[in-house]
Specification:
Radius of gyration: 13 Å
Largest sheet: none
Shape: elongated
Number of domains: 1
Helix content: over 70%
Order of helices and strands: HH
Length: 48
């Protein structure tokens, strides 16, 4: 796999994960669940 293909795949996977987390945050039933998901998203963004 070329580096360009790898970069495209990584970008798509990151975008998919971000959308899934945002959907989970919107659908969270309680504020504490939302806060936990926001913190998870912040941790994920800090690693990238």
């Amino acid at each position: 796999m070329t580096s360009l293909a790898r970069a495209i795949r990584t970008h798509r996977e990151t975008a998919r994960s971000r959308r899934a987390l945002l959907d989970a945050i919107r659908g969270a039933s309680t504020q504490s669940a939302r806060d936990d998901l926001v913190m998870a998203m912040q941790r994920a963004n800090a690693r990238s």
